[in-house]
Amino acid sequence: MAERLSVAQDVEGSIPSSRPKAPKIQPNFLSPLPSQTPALTRVSVTQQNPENEQIGDADQRLAGWFTPFEPRRWLANGHLQTIVGNFLSRPALKVPTEAEEVEVDPADGSRVLCHLNWQPEPRRAASLTLVMVHGLEGSSNSVYMRGIAARAWDAGFNVVRMNMRNCGDTDALTPTLYHSGFSGDVGAVVEHFRARWGLERVALVGYSMGGNLVLKLAGEWGNRAPLVAVAAVCPVIDLAPSSDALHQPANRMYEFRFLRGLMRRFHRKAALFPDHYEPDEVGPVRSLREFDDKIVARYCGFEDADDYYHRVASARVVDRIDVPTLIISAMDDPFIRMFAETRKLIEANGRIEFVETRHGGHCAFLSRDAGEETHWAEATVVRYFQAVTGGQNGS
Fold this sequence. Notes:
By secondary structure, this protein is an alpha/beta fold. Helices cover 31% and strands 13% of the residues. It is built from 11 helices and 8 strands.
């Protein structure tokens, strides 16, 4: 059915911390498990469905939603796919959008901003509701979020585009930073709109960091209603090797872009909440791992970067996912890496369809097909939800 990736990546050891402890704002993540970080090994898995091969009898379960991915001409390169993916136009969102703030943590009043596109009220509750989560330093208005929202609404879904804490110019809505452990925020958004509109069925989709969040929540919830399906595009399932891959020379342009945005946000937070943050004590930050060690760990209740990476990784709960789930990844993604043990857990879970293409870059998947099929992953996710949930209204 899907192509599989061979990965090998050295993981840095724990970074000791001698810094004074600042007051911490406790997040809602899993308590630590007594396990040691596994080593990355090379994994060789048979390629079962080449991009130019039709689906065979053994893969009839894919019929109706899966189409092989063939990269756009001249874009059979992960870096080119990743960069150009931000610029090719997508279907327009043709309906008015509402905005609503949702409280996700009553203890400190933290809120997130959601952008909403509802089907008409007579069929709203019965329609599938798609709750979407963006990637690192993205927002509800990221191009891929708007692209898949347009497709989903046209398919008859309700659409909730959720900003993570602080994202989408919402730094003032929470005293906390944001990180990959806040799966409870996604759950709070689901429950909020379920209570508001009596929603019967909810599906989650996340990109990159948002992919980790939705997979983590799915593992924590199992088959808890109203969750009926999940999709993740290039999810950061194992944070440690992916963070370290960003620091490789070929990926420093991505790391610099992320760091610039994260550091600007940190200084905005310090100005808004001076009692919580001490930016003068942080020192230089030259990598994403250093940011996670010096800032995320310090202010979000973790011992260090490795503790953070371990405790918030959806890899720890992916075996508990108990609703139909689609994971889309690309072999040439510049910086997403996965432990061999995690791959085995995913492949052993019969509820997960793991589709790994030879090309596609990071969250791009620019196809040679024209029109709305150009953005292959977005089209595939919507078709997948239609297939596994019985369409927009369960009929």
